[in-house]
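tool_log.txt
---
The assistant was asked to compare two proteins side by side. It first ran the structure predictor on the initial sequence, then on the second. Raw inputs and outputs are pasted verbatim so the downstream comparison step can read them without reformatting.
(1)
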Amino acid sequence: MMSKLVRMPKTIDQEDFEKLSLNDTVEQKAQLESIIFQEKEIDIDALERYLKDLFSDEDAQAALSSLRIRLASFGDNLRRTTISEYDMEWCIRTLLAADLLSDVKQTTLKEFAENPTIIKELVSVLNMQLSSLQTWHWPKEGVPAEPRKALNGKVRFYLDGELLTTLLLQYIGIKWSIELKTALLDFRNSRAWATTPSSLTKLDIARLTTFLNHYNGYESIEQRRRNFQQSYYFMCQLPSSVESFNQYDDDGEDDEGIAGTNSRRQQRLTASTQYGLRFNTPVDLKQSLLHIVCTDALLNRALHDQCTIVRTDLEWFGPSLAHKSILTILKFFGVSQSDLQFIEAFLACPLKFTGSMNSYLADPAAYKSTPADAPRIRKRGTPVAHSLSAFCGEAVLFVMDYTVNRKTNGIFLYRIHDDFWFLDSQSLRCAEAWKAMNDFATLSGLKFNATKTGTKHIGDKDQLHPDLPKGDIR
């Protein structure tokens, strides 16, 4: 046998591929830097007036008051809570599932998880850090942002922070995410959330009973549609509990998206199958949404002779989120000043893009960062794969969900992360939804991705509203 392997010369195709991969990565890094270090100017007064107007009616005010009391109380209690060994176990488990850590730190954390003594020490240290959360900050020397290639071939830049800091942020992010989702589900189930169509009249129910021999409103098409939307698509980026940690990813250009690609672990949702649809994984979630949209389109065509479908997503959503928009919306929802101060410190991370793209692409396993540049304060966007990033992003996008709900009197909007789908038999209602989305996006500093935005109209083309976006649905 040969004592050592002979390295074969590279072919022209291999060299071209590596050159293309390097060029793409360098372009992504340059575009990312051009976004996250440039503060997005937001008219805070205009955004606050918009929020006050959106939540101005009596039902919305009542639901908003409950939301504010709940989030303020939760934040106060969280700062005074005591992290337990059980908390540390689920915190480690969800962190390992988030695809945030490097391979070396994943191995270290797995070893920690198997050692009860170390678990107790981690609990003690994190409790001390939690008690002084108001003074928390990133290290002044900065946090390395290192490239890592995902399964879809994209290179993303992950924070390579200290393990204790990452554990603390994971704990706080998961706790806030669960609370926000629970609180907003209560808001959605209140009278503030518009539903359409209105309930059947007594005459309608009598006719149904006569022709079908029974009537069960909970088995109606409308109710099933609501159940699907609420159970599987409403705020689906946030976990309902520590046992249902989820992440969604698209293969688009959002190289620092909130969810992050899970390149080593496919995170599963709570197993569920209804009416032949599966919602067990992020892939199932999207495939089932396509089934629901197609079914609704066929139903609208049969009942109303037409249907309009609109699909869009946000361009560079994770990196482009304006910090002022995040903080303004969280403040409006009742998050206390102490908690806002901590979140602002989390967002303003001093970043260092270290190491060489050439060295990374040549051998990702042997890649080592080098302290090349001075740290630069992040002024826009959220760190990839952090649970606090999901919390911030979903808080902002809930406002878009709600403005569409109110402006259209309850049109069904399906959203997975920053991927939006809505349809209706009336093209006008879709145009109203699209205008409402654009109005909020303009105020909050968001931008829709033109290449992934389009409209499909089934039926008489003359009925298609001119204000709807052009382009195909992809």
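(2)
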Amino acid sequence: MPCKSTTIFSIPVELAQRILTFCHPWDVASFSRSSHLAYNLVYHPTDQYLWRQLFLAYPFDNPLKLLEYRRKANLRCPTVLNWKTNLISRLRAQLIASNPSSSESDILSAITLFISIVHSVAPPFESKSSVDDSYDLQWLITVFRTSRILDHSFSSTEVTRLQSQLRSYLALSLDDNRDLKTRNRLKERRNKSRGFVYDLRNYNSENNWGPYFSDGNINWVHVEHLINVVLMNLDELPGAWTNTRPPLGLSATRPYSAPGSYQAHDWAGVEGTWRRYVCFMDYRDLFAFNYSDLADGPRHPRFFEDPRFREATRLIEVKLRLLPTAQRTRFYNQIIDGESPLAELYPPLYFVGSSKGVNGNEAVVEGFVQMAKDGKPRWQFMSIYDNSPQWSSNGVQIGEVGSGMGVVGVWTTTIHDQGDPVGPFWLWKVEDDSPEHVMEYT
């Protein structure tokens, strides 16, 4: 008597789904195309067990941890997790990124998803040293390394803006292969970024002399250029500077990944010790770049290829403490783009402190941090010498609240006269017991 064959459809559905959880999602998708029964088993299950297991086994971060964090922080949370939709959308985005023939509309949807994943990663719950354990961020890095989605040029302004936002979060952390081809590419990028950062036409009252558009939204193309200038300057500095760098990469964008404790009264982690890099051109060079015909000028990137050109970098120690709202600083009103819907959870924080550079050069710092309408903290402050405001700084938190990467922005004068000097700065938080470390390199 012949043996009766057994198929996956002749066993209980729960067992069949359990077997499929040991397969890669692509293999499960292939299986679903074998018959109507297979398709229904995969795409029309009676519960989310199969897709939940496939999602977590990929592996991706467990979104329940993020929901727990958001509930504790009184932030809005989805009522239902759709494991199938989440997994399929991620795998589709990965396919789009790896396909050089993908349409710009598909590229836009993929990059938008990638950015949303960066912002959906939970804080490092265990310790600040565990910030690299996010499966979501590891997956994103793999996607970016194995595709060219961040390197291609697109006609869509929106795609270009989102590419710059992701490259700002990565902060050159994927450009670790410094062969001749990479070095030449970075040199060209550096000159282009310098040309943008030191172009005085990019600063006016409409963008609050910072990396913004006139409507208050962040100009991520500007932010990326600021990051490039600072980091590539640091690459040229001698040994003592090597270990004094802001944390870089996607893991450093996670909320509360910077040192310190975060409480409701100091949601941005203002109080404590910070390091700050500022870069600047000699004013004669800045004037020549903007207004002369040197090197095919004005404002031609070839200006920076002259071997006599120098750009200075200064490392400053900053210490900040909060002020009660009633004692808000003398020189500031609230930020330009209106009140955030998150203002109740994240009210404006006003602070004072000190800024100390080389040769004991010390200034008073006064300013504020405010959650903007787009959910990104904005930092604005002044450096005051002998009770006279001299320099203003306006920057954006890179990543989430309390990110280890810190704040990148623009410094200029408080007077904002035409032709006043400008330059990039990078402010990040360090442990309070960090050794004092102030330097200048020209």
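---
observation on (2): The radius of gyration is 25 Å. The mean pLDDT is 89.
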